[in-house]
C-alpha cells in the first residue's frame, strides 16, 4: 500500500504533490493548459481513497462533458481499480439528474420526469410563443429561449424575472417564460437548466436533504472551474455545507478543490462567470492556492502559438508555461478552395499519417459548429476512414430516418423483408405481428417476393378480414409510390411523396408532441440530403437514381457504427474538446464568420472566441493543422470569407504555411478533354519546395486543362476514382485511388485524369 502511494506521488512535480496531499479546507489551482490540473484531481482522489481519508462514495468529482467524466473515471480507475464505481465522477447535469431522481418528488415531479434536450426545449418555447401570439419574426424562439436560460442560470425564476422587466423584449420573455415553465411542469419535464435549478431548489427548501448530501460528499472536486455559472456556484456552496443563508452549517466541511484556467473560459454565453475562479480567494479567504507552471502536453511550438494568440486578449492573467518536450514541428497552415476540398485534404493527411504508423485514435478534428461535421463525415466515409463524433447525434441511426430509408428501399427492392417488416406497421395501420408473419411465410412458400405477397393479401392463408383490408390500403399506397419511383423522379421529390402517401408525416403531425416535431425536422433534413444528392448526381455519368442515393446513404450510415483495431479518428466541436489531448489535431474552418463565429464578431464575443482558439490549440501534443476554405456553402449559397484572425495571430515563424496568393497559382492543370495528348502550352512548373507542404507548384499559364488542387476528386481512366493528395514541382500530382488504396505519382498533363 505504502509503495502504491509512493508510486502515486512519484509521478508528480512539487506543486502538484502539494495539492494532492493537501488536507482539509478549500484549495484552488489556477494554471495554464496541460499543466496537470486534471492529473492533480485524479491523483488526489486516488490519494484520499488510498490513505483511507475518504471512502469512494464520499467523493463527488465534477467535470464539464461526459467525455471528460469518462476519461477522469478511467484515469482514477487505473489508480485505485474498481472501487471507482461508488464514486460520483460526472458532469454537473448528471449529478443533478441523479439527485433529482431521488428527491424531485418534493417539488411535485414524479421520478420518471422527462429531460428535454436543447432542441426539445426550443420547440416548447416556440409553442408558447405561438400560443401567446408573439410575432416570431420580431423575437425568435432562439433568442427568447436563450434569455430564459440565462435567467435560470442566474437563479431567476419567471416571477423574479417578471419583476425586473425593463423593455418590450423582456416583457415578452417574461410572458413566454411563465407559460413555458407551466408547460414543462404540466408535462412532468425539465430542461437542462432545470436540472441545476431544481436541485438548488430542493437543497434550499429542504434542510434535511441539504444535510444528507453535504454529509455524504466529504470531498467535492471540480475540474474546469472557470466555466461554472452562478447556479453551479450556488450548488457547490450547498453541497459543501453552506446553509440556505449562505453561511456554513455546523455539518459543513468546505472540502472543496477547484481547478481551472481563466484563459480557457468558453461558456460565458451560457452565463459562466469567470469571477467564480478569479474571486475564489475572496469567497474562501483561507483557501490554499497552488500554481502549476510546467506543461507536460505540448511542444514548445504549440505552446508559443497558443500564448501568442491569447496575448491578444486584454485582462488575461499572465501565466508562465514551459515545457521540456522540445521545439517540435511547425504548425501547418493550409488554405483550400472550399469545405469539400478542405475535408478531402484532412482525409488525405489522415491517410498519410496512418500509413506512417499513426493510430487513428491519436487524431482529432475540431470545428466551431456541429453543422460543419457532415461534409467531413461524408468525406471520411468515402475514404474509408473510421471515425466517431463526440457529442453529436448519429443522424442515420434515428428511427424516423431508418423508417424513411426502409420505405425507399422497398421501392427498389421488393424482396427486402427487413425493410418491409420495419415499415408495415409504421405508422400504425392495423398490421399486427401475426399477420405480418403469415404474409412473410406465404411469400416463402409461394416463392414470390414479399411485395407481391402483400399486394394480394386475399391469397395469403389464414389472414383475417381486418388484416387483409389493412394490407390492401398499405399496398395501394405503395403501388402508387412504386409507379412514381419507376419514372425516376428526383429523389428529394420522391421522398417527399413517400412521407406524404405513406401517412408517415401525418401520423407524426397528429402526435403534436415536441419529440414528433423533432422527428419531422430530421425528415426534412433527409429531404435536404436527397436534394443535395440529386444536384451532385446530375453531373455524373449515371445521373441521379433512387438506387444510387440509397447506396450513398448506406455507406455513410454503415460508418456510423464502425469499430476497428486501428481505432477511430475523433470529431468534435471545440467546446467539447476542453480538457482532452491528442498527438495530432486539425482545426478546420478557420475563417472570419465561422471561427470567430459571426455572432461573436457582431456581439462583442471575440475574446471568448479567442479563448476557444486557445483551448483548441492547446489540445495538440505534437502536430497541429490549421485549415481554412476560401469559399463555403452557407444556407445553400456560396460565401467567401477571409482567413480567421486567429491564424494571423500565430507568428509566421512558428508555421509552415502554404496558401494560394492568387487564383491559379498553387495548382497544376491536367488535360481533361483529350486524354493522353500532351499540352503544348504547359509552362514549366515549380517554384521551389515548401517544407511539408504541397503547394509548391504553379501552373497559372496553362490553358485548356483542368486545374488540379490538393483535395480535388478525380477520375482516372484506368485506376478509377481518386483524390489529389499532393501537387509537386514539374506538373506532378500525387493521387490516392480509392479502389485499391494505392498512391501514385502522375504527370498531370499526360495522365488520363478527369476532375470530378
Ligand atoms: P487542461 O487545461 O487542458 O485541462 P490540465 O492542466 O488539466 O490541462 P492534464 O490533462 O492534467 O492538464 O495534463 C496534461 C498531460 O500532462 C497529461 O497527459 C498528463 O498525464 C501529463 N502530466 C501532467 N503532469 C505530469 C507529471 N508530473 N508527469 C508526467 N506527466 C504529467
Ligand atoms: Mg484538465
From TrEMBL:
It catalyses: Couples ATP hydrolysis with the unwinding of duplex DNA by translocating in the 3'-5' direction; ATP + H2O = ADP + phosphate + H(+). It comes from the Bacteria. GO terms for biological process: recombinational repair; response to radiation. Residues 300-579 form the UvrD-like helicase C-terminal domain. ATP binds at residues 31-38. Belongs to the helicase family. UvrD subfamily. This is ATP-dependent DNA helicase UvrD1.
Amino acid at each position: 500500500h505504502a509503495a502504491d502511494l509512493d508510486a502515486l506521488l512519484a509521478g508528480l512535480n512539487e506543486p502538484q504533490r502539494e495539492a494532492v496531499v493537501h488536507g482539509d479546507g478549500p484549495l484552488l489551482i489556477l494554471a495554464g493548459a496541460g499543466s496537470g490540473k486534471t492529473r492533480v484531481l485524479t491523483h488526489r482522489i486516488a490519494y484520499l481513497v488510498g490513505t483511507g481519508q475518504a471512502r469512494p462514495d464520499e467523493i463527488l468529482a465534477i467535470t464539464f462533458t461526459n467525455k471528460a467524466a469518462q476519461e477522469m473515471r478511467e484515469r482514477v480507475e487505473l489508480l485505485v481499480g474498481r472501487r471507482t464505481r461508488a464514486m460520483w465522477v460526472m458532469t454537473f447535469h448528471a449529478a443533478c439528474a441523479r439527485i433529482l431522481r431521488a428527491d424531485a418528488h418534493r417539488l411535485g415531479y414524479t421520478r420518471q420526469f422527462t429531460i428535454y434536450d436543447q432542441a426539445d426545449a426550443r420547440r416548447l418555447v416556440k409553442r408558447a410563443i405561438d400560443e401567446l401570439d408573439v410575432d416570431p419574426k420580431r423575437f425568435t424562439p432562439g433568442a427568447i429561449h436563450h434569455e430564459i436560460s440565462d435567467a435560470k442560470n442566474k437563479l431567476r425564476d419567471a416571477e423574479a424575472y417578471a419583476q425586473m422587466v425593463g423593455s418590450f423584449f423582456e416583457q415578452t420573455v417574461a410572458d413566454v417564460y411563465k407559460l413555458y415553465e407551466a408547460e414543462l411542469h404540466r408535462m412532468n419535464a425539465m430542461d437542462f437548466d432545470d436540472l441545476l435549478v431544481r436541485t438548488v431548489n430542493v437543497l434550499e427548501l429542504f434542510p434535511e436533504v441539504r444535510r444528507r448530501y453535504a454529509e455524504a460528499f466529504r470531498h467535492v472536486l471540480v475540474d474546469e472551474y472557470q466555466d461554472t455559472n452562478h447556479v453551479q456556484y450556488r450548488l457547490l456552496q450547498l453541497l459543501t455545507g453552506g446553509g440556505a443563508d449562505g453561511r456554513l452549517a455546523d455539518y459543513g466541511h468546505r472540502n472543496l478543490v477547484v481547478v481551472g484556467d481563466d484563459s480557457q473560459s468558453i461558456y460565458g454565453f451560457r452565463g459562466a462567470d469567470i469571477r467564480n475562479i478569479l474571486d475564489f480567494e475572496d469567497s474562501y479567504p483561507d483557501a490554499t492556492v497552488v500554481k502549476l507552471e510546467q506543461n507536460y502536453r505540448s511542444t514548445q511550438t504549440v505552446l508559443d502559438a497558443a500564448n501568442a494568440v491569447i496575448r491578444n486578449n486584454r485582462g488575461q492573467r499572465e501565466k508562465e508555461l514551459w515545457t521540456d518536450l522540445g521545439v517540435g514541428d511547425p504548425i501547418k497552415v493550409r488554405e483550400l478552395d472550399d469545405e469539400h476540398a478542405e475535408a478531402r485534404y484532412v482525409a488525405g493527411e489522415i491517410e498519410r499519417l496512418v500509413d506512417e504508423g499513426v493510430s487513428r485514435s491519436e487524431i482529432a478534428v475540431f470545428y466551431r459548429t456541429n453543422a460543419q461535421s457532415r461534409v467531413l463525415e461524408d468525406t471520411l466515409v468515402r475514404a474509408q476512414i473510421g471515425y466517431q463524433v463526440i457529442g453529436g447525434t448519429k443522424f442515420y441511426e434515428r428511427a424516423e430516418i431508418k423508417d424513411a430509408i426502409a420505405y425507399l428501399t422497398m421501392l427498389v427492392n421488393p424482396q427486402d423483408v427487413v425493410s418491409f417488416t420495419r415499415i408495415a406497421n409504421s405508422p400504425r395501420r392495423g398490421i399486427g405481428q401475426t399477420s405480418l408473419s403469415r404474409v412473410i411465410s406465404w411469400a416463402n412458400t409461394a416463392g414470390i417476393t414479399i411485395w407481391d405477397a402483400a399486394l394480394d393479401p386475399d391469397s395469403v392463408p389464414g389472414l383475417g378480414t381486418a388484416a387483409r383490408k389493412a394490407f390492401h390500403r398499405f399496398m395501394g399506397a405503395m403501388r402508387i409510390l412504386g409507379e412514381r419511383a419507376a419514372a425516376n423522379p428526383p429523389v428529394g421529390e420522391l421522398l417527399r411523396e413517400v412521407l406524404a402517401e405513406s401517412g408517415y408525416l401525418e401520423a407524426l403531425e397528429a402526435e403534436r408532441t415536441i419529440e414528433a416535431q423533432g422527428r419531422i425536422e430530421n425528415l426534412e433534413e433527409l429531404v435536404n440530403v436527397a436534394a443535395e444528392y440529386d444536384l451532385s448526381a446530375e453531373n455524373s455519368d449515371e445521373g441521379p437514381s433512387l438506387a444510387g442515393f440509397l447506396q450513398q446513404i448506406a455507406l455513410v450510415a454503415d460508418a456510423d457504427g464502425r469499430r476497428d483495431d486501428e481505432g477511430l479518428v475523433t470529431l468534435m466541436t471545440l467546446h467539447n474538446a476542453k480538457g482532452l489531448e491528442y498527438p495530432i489535431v486539425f482545426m478546420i474552418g478557420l475563417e472570419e464568420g465561422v471561427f470567430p463565429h459571426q455572432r461573436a464578431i457582431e456581439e462583442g464575443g471575440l475574446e471568448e472566441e479567442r479563448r476557444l482558439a486557445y483551448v483548441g490549440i492547446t489540445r495538440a501534443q505534437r502536430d497541429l493543422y490549421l485549415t481554412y476554405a476560401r469559399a463555403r456553402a452557407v444556407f445553400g449559397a456560396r460565401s467567401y470569407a477571409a482567413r480567421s484572425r486567429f491564424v494571423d495571430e500565430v507568428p509566421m515563424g512558428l508555421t509552415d504555411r502554404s496558401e494560394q496568393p492568387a487564383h491559379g497559382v498553387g495548382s497544376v492543370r491536367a488535360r481533361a478533354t483529350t486524354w493522353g495528348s500532351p499540352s503544348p502550352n504547359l509552362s514549366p512548373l515549380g517554384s521551389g519546395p515548401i517544407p511539408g507542404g504541397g503547394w509548391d507548384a504553379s501552373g497559372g499559364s496553362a490553358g485548356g486543362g483542368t486545374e488540379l488542387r490538393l483535395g480535388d476528386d478525380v477520375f482516372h481512366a484506368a485506376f478509377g476514382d481518386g483524390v489529389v493528395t499532393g501537387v509537386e514541382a514539374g506538373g506532378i500530382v500525387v493521387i490516392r485511388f480509392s479502389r485499391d488504396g494505392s498512391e501514385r505519382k502522375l504527370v498531370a498533363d499526360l495522365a488520363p485524369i478527369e476532375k470530378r
